Amino acid sequence: MGRVSEAKVKLMDAVLELIWTGSYGSTTIDQICERAGVKKGSFYYFFNSKSELAVEALGSSWQSMQAEVDRMFSATIPPLDRLQKYCDFSYKFQCDMKAKYGRVLGCPQFSLGSEVCTQDDTLQKKIQSILDYKRKYIESAIRDGIASGDVPACDPSTKAQMVMAYYEGMLMQARIKNDVGLLSKMATGVFSLLGVKDGALATV
Amino acid sequence: MGRVSEAKVKLMDAVLELIWTGSYGSTTIDQICERAGVKKGSFYYFFNSKSELAVEALGSSWQSMQAEVDRMFSATIPPLDRLQKYCDFSYKFQCDMKAKYGRVLGCPQFSLGSEVCTQDDTLQKKIQSILDYKRKYIESAIRDGIASGDVPACDPSTKAQMVMAYYEGMLMQARIKNDVGLLSKMATGVFSLLGVKDGALATV
DNA sequence: ATAATAGTTGACTGTTTAGTAAACTTTGCT
DNA sequence: AGCAAAGTTTACTAAACAGTCAACTATTAT
Prior knowledge:
Chain A is mainly alpha-helical and 204 residues long. Chain A contains 9 helices and no strands. The radius of gyration of chain A is 19 Å and the shape is elongated. The A-B interface holds A 21-26, 103, 106, 110-111, 113-119, 124, 127-128, 131, 158, 161-162, 164-170, 172-173, 175-178, 182, 185, 188-189, 192-195 and B 21-26, 103, 106, 110-111, 113-119, 124, 127-128, 131, 158, 161-162, 164-170, 172-173, 175-178, 182, 185, 188-189, 192-195. Chain A binds a DNA duplex (30 and 30 nucleotides) through α3.
């Protein structure tokens, strides 16, 4: 019973957009409320702080993204194709953001993680866990690639770490330079890191 | 004539430390002044804003760093050794920071760049230019490596972009995870990206 | 010595911010 | 209808914040 509300969802959407198009530190609770079309009293009815809102928003945003990532990294897809698809997806995604906001926005977890890691422990832990999930997809694709003989023998965990550093570094660069072109050939570097000749893919 | 002052230097040191150990958005002018042991009136005597101070501080910090980088990337050193030295230096540097602050701090330009790129144009441009300088060292080493036959033929500019993405991505990951261990084998990935077998170095 | 220059200080202003509380409104249950 | 749960709103406080200014102090060239 009682009345129903979309305020919570609206606040989560608003905070993500503001953090992503700007930064965590520079977005105020008043701004979030204004963007969400929600009064501050309602904000504090649902959340205790900006940090708490951000944690929930990041979690829910990752949850909806995860379905899509699961499809890209399906075990039915050849391992290297998964990585190719993931790179292509990221490129397209960043193009969409650039079209929508006039800005390449990069990876929300990485940008935010770098900003708050020394300041907000619970937020930092949430981001860490999402990044760990993402790495597991890559690691699993590498492991499958080794099994199928597409990837030279290596430690999948270490290699995944490297691939991810490269991938996230590229997105960061694209954000800082506001240049989406850097990302169009992203997969090339991924395959170099794996010691795989580019173009050795089954189908794309 | 008139009296002499170290306030400007102290303010620049303070802002760099605060941004690096925290973030740009979360460091206030009051904080900077307190850390520097300088009164706010003096701050505004020398600078018009936090942004202006940050621009000057970044420039001067890069200038003193550049001497060291020039040595590492000396044309007298075999090209791949330069990259190895640079990776080793970064690793040691981050270890020092961890020892000093209890935190891996990563690359100041990259963290800050990602935070302010959508918000502060002059700061963004300053960071951009420093990052461009850094890339030129890598690009030049790659070009020399191709000339000496140590690096397979490629477009040095594009490859430098990739190497840098990987390098900066690694530093970012280390910052977010507060784990310096990730960086100990950094050069391995650099050489993979260049299509060079690890251990093909003249001397290190 | 003193006057001009360079830098310092503290007290001040107005604004933005986080956070609170009490009155009010909508909704569903009986 | 009427009551209770769930959510909304407005007006408020106190603190943090950026930025200003006039009076003050140290340095040095002459």
